[in-house]
Every structure is written in C-alpha cells, then in structure tokens.
C-alpha cells in the first residue's frame, strides 16, 4: 500500500487524568466514541493522515497518562513535539487550574517554537460546566496558545478542528522556515525532500 | 496455548497432591506454576495463589472509612474505566458490585500501608486477583505483592520503576547486541514496556486466561521476571524491529501492538524468560542497567556516576559466575524454541522456585535483590 506524505508532525496530548485525552485521540483517529476507554498507562501512540492545502500531512499523536507520577516519564516526549494540546475538563475546575503546571512543563521541556492549543473538553455537559469561556480563553492568551477551543469527544464537537488547526499552523510555520532558509536543516519537519524516508516513515500504522 | 486435556488433568492431579501435603508443598506448586500451562484453571489458582504468597492462613480484614483516602478520587476515576477487563455478560448490578469491590480492595491496601502510593495500572493488577479469588481472599494477596513484587512501583515517584525498566537493555544485549544498537540509535527508550511491567501485562494482553497464566509464572518468580519476559517479547520480534527504518515512532508502535496481539506465544516466552534468568541473573546485569540509565536523557541522574564507577565490568561478573562459556554456546545456537535445552529448563524452574520462596521469606523488595544498582539510591 503506497502511502505518500509530505509532512510529518508530532503532537503530544497532556492534561490531568480523566479529562478525556484518550477519547479525543480515539475520536480523531477512528471517528467513533468509546464509552469505556481504559486509563492510559505510560504513553500511547497513534498515527493519522490528513490533507491540508493539497498536502498530505501525517500526524504522530502521543497520548500521555495524566496521573501526576507519570509526569517525569512523559516529559521525555516533549522535546521532539511540534505541537502540544493541553486539555482540561470543563466540568472540573481543578483540571483547569492544573493547566498552569502543565504549561509550565511545556515551557521547560518543549522547543521554543512549539505550537500550543488549550482545549476545554466535555462541552456537551452544559449544565455541569464550571469554567467559563472567557476565563479559559484569557488563560489561553496568557499561555500564548494558538487558540482556545472547546470540544466534546462524545458529541464530536471541534475534535477534528483542533487537530486541523494545529496542523495548518505547523504547515504555515514550516513554509516560513523554508522561505527564510531553504538550505537550513529543518529539524526533520519536512520529509518530502528525502525520498528514501518518505515511503518508509509514513507507511507504518 | 492450552495443554491437551489428558496433560491438563494429570497436572491438576499434581497440584492437588502438593496442596494436600502437610505442610503444603509450595516448592512443587511453584514448579507447576512455571511449567507449561501453569495452573490450568481459575479453580486451581484460587487454591494455590494464597500459598505462593504465604497468606493462606492470613485473616486481615478491610479497614474502615476507605472512601476518605486521599487517592480515592483517582482510584474511582480508573475503576470507572476498567469495564474492558470484566467478563462478558455481567449484569449492571454485578458490574457495579465488582467495581465497588475493586475500589475497596485498592483503598484497603493503601489504607493499611500509607507508605504505598497508588499508580494508574495498579487497578489492573487488582482486577486479576478479584476475578480469580474474590474480594475477601484478594486483600491479603494484593497486600503481599504490593509490599514485595510491586513495592518499587509504589514509591512516591517513578524513579525506581524507571531503573527497573532499564534492566531490559542489558538482557536484550546478551541475546542480540545488534538489536540493542539499533534500538538505541532509534532512541525508542524503554517506556513502551512500562505498562507491561507495572500491570504484569494485564493492560495489554487481551485474554483474561492468558493474564492468569502469566500471573502463575510471575507469582512464582523473582520480581524482575516481568522484565525478562518483556525482553523475550522484544527478542521474539527482532526481525520486525530491524526490518524497517530506524525510527523511534515506528519501533514504539510496533512494540505496543505486538504485546496486544491475541496470540502471544506465552509458553515459549515463559520458558525462554526462565532460561535467561538463570544464565543472566539480575546481579550480572546491574552495571549495564546503570550505564543505560546514565545515558538516558529523560530522567534525572543524581547518583549514576558513582554507580558506574564503583561497579565491576559485567564480563568480570560473568566470568566469576562461570557464565561466559554459556554465553558463547548460546551464540552458536540461537535461543530459538527448538534449541531450548531440557537440562537448563529444569535448573531454571528449580532455581526460580527457590528464589521465589526465599524472596518472600526475607520480605525483600525487588530493589534489595539487586544491590549493585540500588544500593546507592
Ligand atoms: N460527557 C463527556 N464525557 C467525556 C468526554 N470525553 C471523555 N469523557 C469521559 O471522561 C472519562 C475520561 O476520558 P479519558 O479519555 O479516558 O481521559 P484521559 O484524559 O485519557 O485520562 P488518563 O488516560 O487517565 O490521563 C471517560 O470516562 C469518558 O467517558 C466528552 O467529550 N464528554
Ligand atoms: Mg488516557
């Protein structure tokens, strides 16, 4: 099966346990909703291809465990990430408060030009909402995120959008880099000019 | 892989014989747990496991006020998401009861032992005991493995767990240095095996019967045996790892998927793990594991230089233990299913049994069994 792709981006999902990271990833990957998703232990991984502006984009999605004690382990995966999706549960204020610490990790361990999204999940539970759009949006600004989004993995609201927005921005960033210095080593973002690795690095999964 | 009915029957007979001895012949039970098929069925496990853990006479009960424990919220979060592990066909009421029992079991042990810290994945181990032995009997058993086999995973941090995971590398190196070189070049690390280790494979192995079979084995062996087993899974798939680009993501995903396959050749992997354990016991690997740890970017490295400097070179250890010849022999004849030697198998089983018994007798945790590495922590 020939599986061509022009760009490969690594995206990591972080946030407290139970906010819905795995449900979001599964919704994005398979389009379905699994009610009884098991807790993530360590770091899970999946791949998904999408097309943006006629370009084939391969997304490597790293889904991390939310429990505090796994943090030292997941931090190792920040370094090579191009994008970070920091997730909280709109119905649990404590998970929103934790985003400060999660974002602190991001600034410590991610590369400086990493693209960040802040995502408030479970927006389907309208009557149990504890964090307002304004407050979360302001928080997002202070984190210098690309955007603050509200999602529902359950009702498939904004899930695809989140990943597409992320990928589009990464693509834009990439073209800028290319415009600036075509010869410069581009950190392996663009694998299309290395024909040997195009087929192989994109064919698993 | 199931035993033929006649063999299974004969085995169960032996299990009963060992159980009926006075005192119960625990050494014989351990051997039966390790040899093909393990304890065969849940009924046998229900009777034997308490003896393996020396809690058959134990009468500990559930403490009061469990739901006040500070980890209660996290535990319930995981218990609520553990439905996949439950047997098919349970009614909602039965499911709810099982979940209540699971929460009580976890919080029970945590309340008895405030020094133990809950981790996501611990609940997966508790489910296995609950399904096999029920709520009453499970408390003493889970309490025992939590203070022994799982003790290091329940530290305040995951540092010890990461250390233990790093034993994977020297074990792999003994069998396939080329593979290790490739894996190190890809920077895949050892985290792919984290969930294998801390859940005793119950997070990944899809069939409950297979999980129980593995528990027969692990309950009868050294706490590091799950790492030896992980190494065998990787080695068994060396061709697939080497046959493709040297990329972290590809190899990571491959390894994640392999363990989830329904037809993992359990018995072969168990045999090979025992064999490796005998040839390359933990003490012979300590130096390599420390060195890998030092070079691993991910984790803080507060004590590793002292570790490496103070320890002997691994081949010195091997020579002293008379293991260098064994290694050469192994190289000529790759450790495949066919070459697995009858003689070494018997030794492996006997020794693993002895080690398991001794472990519980002295009340040690995994870390104390590998002083070369952990003495400095
Ligand atoms: N109502 C509602 N529930 C959701 C949504 N997304 C996830 N959930 C529920 O939230 C719980 C946790 O979801 P997970 O995806 O397992 O959470 P996680 O962030 O991956 O948690 P860890 O793996 O423990 O870090 C599950 O029981 C889901 O059913 C959502 O959009 N709406
Ligand atoms: Mg998850």
How would you portray this structure in words?
The complex is a heterodimer of chains A (205) and B (377). Chain A has 205 residues and is an alpha/beta fold. Chain A has one domain (7-176): P-loop containing nucleotide triphosphate hydrolases (Rossmann fold), CATH 3.40.50.300. Chain A contains six helices and six strands. Chain A has a six-stranded mixed beta sheet with strand order 2-3-1-4-5-6, sandwiched between helices. Chain A is globular. By secondary structure, chain B is mainly alpha-helical. Among the domains of chain B are: 66-147, Helicase, Ruva Protein, domain 3, CATH 1.10.8; 159-266, Cyclin A, domain 1 (Orthogonal Bundle); 314-376, no CATH class. Helices cover 63% and strands 0% of the residues of chain B. Chain B has helices spanning 5-20, 26-34, 42-52, 72-79, 92-112, 122-147, 159-165, 168-175, 177-186, 194-198, 208-219, 225-236, 238-242, 248-260, 266-279, 282-295, 304-310, 314-320, 324-332, 342-362, 371-374. Chain B is globular and about 55 Å long. At the A-B interface, strand 2 and helix 6 of A face helix 4, helix 10 and helix 14 of B. Guanosine-5'-triphosphate (GTP) binds next to helix 1 of chain A.
């Amino acid at each position: 099966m020939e599986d061509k792709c022009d760009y490969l981006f690594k995206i990591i999902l972080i946030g407290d346990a139970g906010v819905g990271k795995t449900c979001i990833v599964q919704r994005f990957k398979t389009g379905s909703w699994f009610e009884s998703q098991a807790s993530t232990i360590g770091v899970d991984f999946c791949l998904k291809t999408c097309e943006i502006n006629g370009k084939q984009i391969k997304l490597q999605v790293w889904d991390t465990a939310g429990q505090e004690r796994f943090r030292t382990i997941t931090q190792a995966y920040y370094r090579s990430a191009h994008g970070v999706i920091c997730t909280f549960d709109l119905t649990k204020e404590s998970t929103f408060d934790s985003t400060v610490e999660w974002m602190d990790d991001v600034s410590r361990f991610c590369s400086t030009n990493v693209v960040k999204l802040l995502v408030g999940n479970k927006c389907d539970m309208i009557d149990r909402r504890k964090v307002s759009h304004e407050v979360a949006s302001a928080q997002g600004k202070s984190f210098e995120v690309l955007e603050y989004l509200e999602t529902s993995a359950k009702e498939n609201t904004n899930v695809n959008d989140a990943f597409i927005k992320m990928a589009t921005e990464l693509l834009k960033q990439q073209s800028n880099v290319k415009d600036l210095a075509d010869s410069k080593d581009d950190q392996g973002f663009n694998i299309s000019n290395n024909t040997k690795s195009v087929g192989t690095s994109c064919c698993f999964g | 892989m199931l035993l033929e009915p006649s063999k299974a029957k004969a085995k169960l007979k032996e299990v009963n014989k060992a159980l009926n001895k006075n005192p119960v012949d625990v050494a014989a039970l351990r051997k039966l747990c390790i040899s093909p098929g393990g304890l065969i069925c849940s009924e046998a496990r229900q009777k034997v496991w308490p003896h393996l853990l020396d809690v058959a006479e134990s009468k500990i009960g559930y403490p009061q006020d469990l739901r006040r424990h500070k980890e209660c919220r996290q535990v319930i979060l995981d218990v609520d998401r553990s439905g996949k592990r439950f047997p098919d066909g349970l009614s909602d009421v039965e499911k709810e009861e099982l979940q209540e029992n699971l929460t009580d079991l976890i919080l029970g042990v945590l309340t008895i032992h405030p020094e133990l810290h809950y981790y996501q994945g611990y609940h997966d181990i508790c489910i296995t005991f609950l399904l096999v032995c029920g709520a009453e009997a499970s408390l003493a058993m889970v309490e025992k493995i939590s203070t022994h086999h799982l003790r290091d995973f329940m530290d305040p941090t995951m540092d010890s767990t990461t250390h233990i995971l790093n034993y994977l590398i020297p074990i792999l190196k003994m069998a396939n240095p080329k593979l290790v070189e490739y894996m190190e070049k890809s920077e895949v690390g050892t985290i792919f095996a984290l969930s294998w280790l801390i859940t005793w494979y119950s997070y990944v192995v899809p069939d409950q019967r297979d999980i129980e079979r593995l528990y027969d084995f692990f309950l009868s062996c050294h706490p590091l045996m799950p790492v030896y087993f992980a190494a065998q899974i990787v080695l068994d798939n060396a061709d697939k790892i080497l046959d493709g680009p040297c990329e972290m993501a590809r190899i990571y995903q491959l390894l994640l998927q392999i363990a989830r396959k329904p037809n993992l050749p359990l018995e072969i992997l168990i045999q090979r793990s025992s064999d490796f354990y005998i040839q390359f016991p933990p003490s012979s690997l300590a130096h390599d594991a420390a060195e890998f740890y030092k070079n691993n970017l991910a984790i803080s490295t507060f004590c590793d230089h002292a570790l490496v400097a103070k320890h002997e070179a691994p081949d010195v250890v091997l020579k002293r233990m008379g293991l260098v010849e064994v290694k050469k022999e192994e190289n000529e004849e790759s450790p495949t299913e066919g070459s697995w030697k009858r003689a070494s198998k018997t030794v492996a089983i006997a020794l693993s049994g002895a080690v398991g018994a001794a472990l519980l007798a002295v009340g040690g945790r995994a870390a104390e069994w590998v002083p070369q590495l952990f003495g400095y922590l």
